[in-house]
Amino acid sequence: MNIFQLLCWGFLILPIPLGILWVIVYRGRKDLVLPDWLSGVLAQGIISGHAVQSGNAKEKDYGFIIITTIILVISICLCISIFLPSTPADNSRINTIEIEHNTYEDNEIGMKIYVTFDVNNRKNMNCHAAAYFYFSSGEILKDFNDRFYTNEGQVAVGRSFSPSYDDSHYDNFTLFIPYDELHMSNGDYKLKFIVKLYEEDSKRFFAQSDYFNFTFSKH
């Protein structure tokens, strides 16, 4: 039972003595049979509603109608929350990130990013892991040749994957980016990147790492 359901049950239980008080004390209807507490609440709402319609309403009648309406709305919300299927908890997360400098792939020198992560509730879904690059100040690294980039023109590298199980674990999922694709001129730079996981169809991100800081030198 989630927090919403607990709150609803609390609001439903509290009116039990109130329903009896409304009918017995305020209205003097000691002869009214209450098969359950809800009938008392509804009965008081009907009594107060009739008083309003007939023009004999007192100030408390309007209060009774408002409270009764609130209780009914909460009851409906509770029923919906109980009978609608609940969404499974998403415990997808990025666990660790490591980098390896001065590695080669397809005769290009660059850096490899090793990502270990868990993915839940996405069996056979098309997913993507991507690293997005920034200066340490937070300014994005801009792409200039449309090789390793996002639609917004930021330097990035990514790979697709499709989990085989409801709960899938990936060890050292590798992303490689050539140093030339960072588009840095000669000098020493403090850079950083963040890794994010997203669903390719919905383009919705469902996990991300902290920023990973590193130093890049080109001479």
Structural summary, described in words:
The chain has 219 residues and is α+β, with helices and mostly antiparallel strands. The chain has 2 domains: 3-83; 93-218, Immunoglobulin-like, CATH 2.60.40. Helices cover 30% and strands 36% of the residues. The chain is built from 4 helices and 8 strands, in the order ααααββββββββ. It has helices at 3-13, 15-26, 37-54, 59-83; strands spanning 93-105, 108-120, 127-135, 156-161, 167-178, 187-199, 204-208, 212-218. The strands form 2 sheets. Strands 3, 4, 6, 7 and 8 form a 5-stranded antiparallel β-sheet that branches. Strand 1 and strand 2 (108-120) form a beta hairpin. Mean pLDDT is 80; it is low at 7-12, 22-27 and 29-35.
Q: Tell me what the CATH architecture of the largest domain is.
A: Sandwich
How many helical elements? 4
Number of domains: 2
Q: How many strands appear in the DSSP assignment?
A: 8
Distance between the termini: 60 Å
Shape: elongated
The biggest beta sheet is recorded as:
5 strands, antiparallel
CATH topology of the largest domain: Immunoglobulin-like
Unreliable runs: 7-12, 22-27, 29-35
**Elements, N to C (H/E):** HHHHEEEEEEEE
Which range does the strand content fall in?
35-45%
Helicity range:
25-40%
Q: Mean pLDDT score, rounded? A: 80
Q: In CATH, what is the class of the largest domain?
A: Mainly Beta
- Structural class label: alpha+beta
Radius of gyration: 31 Å
Quaternary structure state of the chains depicted: single chain
